[in-house]
Design brief:
By secondary structure, the protein is mainly alpha-helical. The protein has three helices and no strands.
Length: 96
Amino acid sequence: MDAVPIKFASWIGGDRDGNPNVTPAVTLEVVTHQRLRAAKLLLKDMNKLYSELAISSRFTNDMDVLAASITESADKREKYRRVTGYLRRRLVKTVK
């Protein structure tokens, strides 16, 4: 397998080639900070998407199944908003 699930694109927290100041604790702190930053950026985009979604009555079977799996939602008839709203709630929990 040639997958690289995590790749440092910055030296911040990733300068682990002998720098004694970059410890596993420093790397964990940086990765946690970047995770929260990414979640906040994604949440901002999801909020915008949620507000711009149009009502639709045409869905794929996969969307029907996914929307049906989300039982707690104010968006009973709007499946795209139901799924997007669920993702937003998960991101809010991540950010907190």
